[in-house]
Request: fold
Amino acid sequence: MSVNSISRRNILKSLSMGAVAGSVLRVIPLEAAEFAHSLVAAEKADAKAGAYTPKFFPPQQYKTLQLLCGTIFPADADSGGAVEAGAPEFIDLLTRENPEYQLKLGGGLMWLDATCVDRYGKVYLDCSSRQQKEMLDRIAYRKNAVSEASLSQGVEFFSFLRDLTADGFFTSKIGIEYLGYIGNTFLTDFPGCPPVPGV
Amino acid sequence: MAQLNPPAKIYDVCIIGSGAGGGTAAKVLTEGGLNVVMLEAGPALNPDKDFKEHVWPYELPHRGAGIGGRARHDFTGEFLAPNGFWEIDGEPYTVAPGSSFRWFRSRIEGGRTNHWGRIALRFGPADFKARSTDGMGDDWPITYEELAPYYDKVESFVGVFGTKENVPNAPDGVFQPPPKPRCTETIVKKACDKLNITCIPSRLAILTQPLNGRPACHYCAQCGRGCMTASNFSSSQVMIPPAQATGRFTLIPNAMAREIVIGKDGKAEAVYYIDKTTQSENRVRARAFVVAASACESARLLLNSRSSGFSSGLANSSGVVGRYLTDSVGSNLAGYFPQLEKVPAHNHDGVGGMHLYMPWWKFGEKNDFLRGYHIEFGGGRGMPGVGEFGGVCAEYEGYGVSLKQKCRSSYGTVIGFSGRGEMIPNENSYCDIDPNVVDKWGIPVLRFHWEWGENELKMAQHMQDTFRSIIETAGGTVLSRHRDSNEGQINEGKMRVDPAQAKRSSISEGGAIIHELGTVRMGDNPKISALNRNCQAHDVKNLFVADAAPFVTNPDKNPTLTIMALSWKTSEYLLDQAKKGEI
Reply:
């Protein structure tokens, strides 16, 4: 039996255990993690840059996901945005592995399209940018679900996606540079706090 | 059971477990001339392959979030040094109805020392005299003065930084110089000075100067990932190599000890173990046994070693094995500090832990509760990681460039505080063997029973009040509930909430602080203790315990340094007995 097939079995086992454990998934078999890493790395090496094939989301949904990630953390004068940072790939990878995320995000995107169809007669991707903004302005704030209860699932979905997009963006090279983190290096001496007024 | 061929070799000593206690015993015993075999329930460690030091999150497809994102929710991050788990596939434990307890275990050479917090605090004189001091719990059969020379030996060998401070009941040790404070620590210290809370350089088992061929720390703040240069202490990189160098040390990895068997002479004769790689039964024989499998695992092994002479478990004629289980009292709170927004970008990494801490500053005063706690804290401009901005997103909501900028200005402005306090043993906190459940190796599993006492709840509340006053005195504000749901616990130098803690009052879940101990306690009276003053079983002369199971109290000082000092003392006694032909 090859090493790969053992690891694949471990991945499946870990995922089924996680489902039993509920929302807090506590098992990380290291060999399984390594296998998943090598899988994605190999695929990235094979594929042309930018030609990522989503693992969980169907193509249309993935486009919506990309659009939302880019709206949550867009490129600006200081740095690229969440799409350039690989947040959609990161989210797709985790979602493929986690049934709870599949419900929250897959279901959430369906909710978004259904709500847009009700309101504008079109799915989110086909809405005008003004309509898209109007929609997001509704589900981006908890207080809106208080005044309009039918938005609560959308608010929940957007909040979850926003957290994951933040994770994807701020763990990327451009996100880390944007924050100005300096470190992860070898120092012979630690200089301590530089002189700062009030600190 | 299948018949086994008698193993040809009889070792002088068999050590079960390779963590802080087992590793120390291996070093002392082999250097003393004995032939030692060590059983470890996990694989041998390979730092090159197993440690994720200096890896950026974007170099891993999961970015540190782990498979399915589970590390976004829990302590077991993708970067953590390997094989530490709240749950182990096929090796469950159970929790009695009405109780709540979590058990963190490692299955790898070096055990939990591969990723521990490196906090290396001596217990104080009063910690060994609990009952004499306040009438609760019991005194140890040994005093601080008896253990002090072994603290000296351990600190001199493993390397601990700190400063001599003469804090009551927090003894100074043999220290290397401490690193300079970070900005976050400077801010907190100023507030503590105003509040008359003692705030001093922390005491961590991390080298700031070279020692025994190990280079000094290079200040990447990633001790929790395991250290390629062995500049911090782990049993696997610091204790086991000198044992191996003697040529008298044999490590058997993937060996899950199942039972210790007794010979006709009433002495322990062999340990049965399962080779996890072949699922086969094996046996190793020795003249003496040192059980150091971690407090609860050691109790489990003894309780599962039943024979006609020991119907309630080996070395358990007292019935105390599994009893007196304690963990540290934990509580967290985080604050936002606006002045940190003005700090220019700079390297804030430092060592993989706090540079300053607050030892218990009210020792000997009349307080609302007995015993005390210390405070750990951290935060600032660490390597960004998953979950870091969940709190900012929840607080400011929205999306777009303004949220992105808010994340940037909030980055590094949070400091989290964690209290670690003493729990007094109680009747309702213990572990026993679950009568109905075995693990995948067929070994009956532990069942945990847990209840915090009134003293612990009062202490946790006092921690909350103290954290709040420090935060406010330092010019910060306590994080709102939304933000606090994502921040507040120290994990790899960053703040994360303990998800278990959010559920109920401000006190941590039993076991969550990973200082569980006391389950095979020592004492002079064999009716109420399992081990004598030398950590030798009252009932079985050639059986010793060398992890935190022998501890009589669980003071607010993290147990690892005392595990090593006590193991060193126990090992020297064992050596002496072996030389005299007593064992």
